[in-house]
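Box S1 | Example of a co-folding query
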Amino acid sequence: MAQDKRIVILTGAGISAESGIDTFRSAGGLWEQHKVEDVATPEGFARNPDLVLGFYDKRREALSGVKPNPAHAALARLEREFLGELLLVTQNVDDLHERGGSSQVLHMHGELKSALCMSCGVRSAWDAPMSDRPPCPVCQAPTLRPDVVWFGEMPYQMERIYAALSACDLFVSIGTSGAVYPAAGFVQEARAAGAATLELNLEPSDGTHYFAEARHGPAGELVPQWVDEVLVG
Ligand code: BJW
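Box S1 (continued) | Returned holo structure for BJW
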């Protein structure tokens, strides 16, 4: 890969697995511990806000006990040293890309450390529990919810992502099962634009057949190897 190319990278829960954050669909993962319709839909939140706020409070609190792994560090190195254009899109709501050194991260499914006020619509940096119904820092209404994208909601910055996919030379998907749209469809968008496509995942994803190349193994090994290849040119 020459250094003057445009790369779009999509990451999912698998990139944070070696840091100790549960994935969603693996054995023992979050969707075995909780019903997805209870904790990751607007309807579930309306039915039982205490359950949902508690679920996200625990996951936000757990961030202080985990660290970025070599895969996050490698993508940060790519951001620093790659001479072409790079867009790092993550489905993850953790902050491990940023703590690993990446400064430009597009969180398409939102962030644990952000609050969305259902009264004024403002998103605020947030690193505290929400179960006790704290006031919005902007309008003071006690109507904060986790600033994450649930099923049936529109992910963030889709226009920007699709524009980058339609103009990229390489699309790389890392640590995602390919079970959730629209992210699962990015590989087809990139292919339609003539881009090369690469999957780096522990095992074949649901969409592995769409990728021109797939490498299977832990992200902590595959991602640093791939970044070395890109930077050596
Ligand atoms: C490793 C590893 C290691 C493990 N190294 N790898 C029918 C057909 C098509 C679509 C739909 C449909 N019915 C409904 C829909 C739409 C729906 C959808 O996709 N549903 C599916 C269930 C079918 N999607 C939506 O509703 C989305 N919105 C939407 O579509 O709006 C309309 C729209 C229209 C047009 C354009 C754009 C939009 C919203 C989806 C929101 C998803 N939200 C969640 C929760 C976020 C907050 C939170 O974190 O709690 O996002 S669900 C959950 O899944 C989370 C994740 O970001 C997302 C993806 O999961 P991910 O990251 O892939 O994790 P896993 O666990 O699935 O996979 C991990 C992978 O890592 C595995 O493959 C492992 O093998 C691997 N791995 N260790 C490398 N060490």
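The mean pLDDT is 97. The domain at 1-21+68-109+155-233 is CATH 3.40.50.1220 (Rossmann fold).
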